[in-house]
Amino acid sequence: MTGTLVLAGTPIGEIADAPPRLATELAAADVIAAEDTRRLRRLTQALEVQPSGRIVSYFEGNEAARTPELAEALAGGSRVLLVTDAGMPSVSDPGYRLVAAAVERGIKVTAVPGPSAVLTALAVSGLPVDRFCFEGFLPRKGGERRTRLREVADERRTLVYFEAPHRLDDTLAAMAEIFGADRRAAVCRELTKTYEEVKRGRLEELVPWAAEGVRGEITIVVEGAPDTAQDLGAEELVRRVRVREEAGERRKEAIAAVAADAGLPKREVFDAVVAAKNAEKGPAKGPAKGA
Hints:
Elements: E1 4-8, H1 20-28, E2 31-34, H2 37-46, E3 54-57, H3 63-75, E4 79-83, H4 96-104, E5 108-112, H5 117-125, E6 132-137, H6 142-151, E7 158-163, H7 168-179, E8 184-189, E9 197-202, H8 203-211, E10 218-222, H9 234-246, H10 251-262, H11 266-281
Parallel strand pairs: 1-4, 1-5, 2-3, 2-4, 6-7
Antiparallel strand pairs: 7-10, 8-9, 8-10
Helix pairs in contact: 3-4, 6-7, 7-8, 9-10, 9-11, 10-11
């Protein structure tokens, strides 16, 4: 008989949030694959659990190499428990490769549901959560980050991101430029921990706050793009055209795409772009006196 792969959710802050079944699985697993074995030790001590199985490290640096070994253990009948530093394995954490390998071999995969920074941030954000998409971490380089943001500039679902505190102000500034300064967002810091904080506001309001310095683990929730033509003013139409142009589209195609998305005549979007261009040039100068 083949074994079972168990993905275990672990607390994102408060240890009391650990699901009761986690302790049972930690004690019974034949193999525990941990993103950080030192954190695992602290977790088992806090839960007063003594693992009986073999403990191995399983992190980004060795995930590809260690997956075949764990897959063999599963094929041989072992119960393998996968735990990451916080939250659910595979969600911006190691796990996908092992799950894929287990599925390919017909091995059972199950989970111990637990805390999730993504769902917790959505729940407390005050933004619509009926439809959302998780975008994980953005690229570290500014140009790549802006490209990724442009890809979802017109996404109508609420967006969720993870971000490092030292890049937060740059990321929020890029979001304000590409998504629009008035787009609402919530920055969730240190969720469930002692210094938990949720800062809500428009993107342009959050940038100076973040520039003062923010610490801790960060989850950003951003409302989706407006979903009706009535919500789109001339300024928003022009911004969307510019985002597409920066991504490499010709202006004609960008105008057509924005008009189609907004349900508006192309002429209306074209006129908004022309008006904005003329406004940037400033008022036309009249003839000199005495001419």
